[in-house]
Specification:
Helices cover 80% and strands 0% of the residues. By secondary structure, the chain is mainly α.
Length: 246
């Protein structure tokens, strides 16, 4: 195209000497403008390519973390249900009028696993990095961006309930149980101190503590399932962005 304009310019110059310099100047200006526009287009393409690459890196990191969190949440749900079932078993035993209860493997299992709790260490490094920086602007999807901003709030709400359950177990259930159970007897069968299983199973306060934990686990599971649903939504949205944009 540039060659075409140059050819026309030469023809005009040969026909009109007066317009020679004017046409020459116009032609050179035109060529310079065309060159600048081409350079700007190339630069814009390069910048767009860099931006796309940054978006891809950010979205992939988020996707990886949310998939990992999905697994952690599923494990947490399973563990909370397990502790809830153990708690119900304890509650039923504690309600009975038990006399002269002897040490047995079933009770040992309940004593070991019953006063436990589950803590989920969510993976949020990529999410925090995005939210607390200009990288959030790399997320074009409005629904995805809003979901990313709200996700830490859901985690914090769950962690608050998790702290309540942990407190019940550590500050109430465990000390209460250790009033009756000889840990040395459980460890190596030592008879220096004998466990009082009858006293343990007739402790009303311990029963109340397990009931309280049972109620808190209900709320904990509800929040965790809600967090699982939000995690699923974010995974789907990120996957869609990756497929559409790249």
């Amino acid at each position: 195209m540039i060659k075409f304009f140059r050819k026309i310019r030469q023809q005009l110059l040969s026909e009109n000497k007066f317009s020679k310099y004017l046409l020459y100047a116009i032609g050179e200006i035109f060529l310079v403008v065309i060159g600048i526009l081409i350079a700007l287009q190339i630069n814009n393409c390069n910048e767009e390519r860099k931006l796309k690459q940054q978006q891809k890196v950010v979205l992939k990191a988020l996707y990886t973390d949310f998939v990992a969190n999905k697994k952690l949440i599923q494990e947490g749900i399973e563990k909370h249900r397990y502790h809830k079932d153990l708690g119900l078993t304890w509650i039923k035993l504690l309600r009975k009028d038990t006399l002269n209860v002897q040490k047995n493997p079933f009770l040992d299992s309940l004593l070991f696993w019953g006063p436990e709790y589950k803590v989920i260490d969510f993976i949020d490094a990529s999410l925090n990095n995005v939210i607390n920086s200009e990288k959030l602007d790399l997320v074009n999807n409005t629904k995805l961006k809003q979901g990313l901003i709200e996700y830490p709030l859901s985690i914090n709400k769950y962690k608050d309930l998790e702290t309540v359950v942990r407190s019940i177990v550590i500050e109430r259930i465990r000390p209460r149980g250790e009033q009756y159970i000889s840990l040395s007897e459980m460890l190596d069968g030592s008879d220096s101190f004998k466990s009082d299983y009858t006293g343990l199973l007739n402790d009303r306060q311990l029963s109340n503590d397990y009931v309280n934990r049972h109620w808190q686990l209900d709320d904990l599971l509800k929040d965790l399932k809600n967090l699982e649903a939000k995690t699923d939504t974010l995974i789907i949205l990120i996957d869609k962005e990756l497929k559409n944009e790249f």
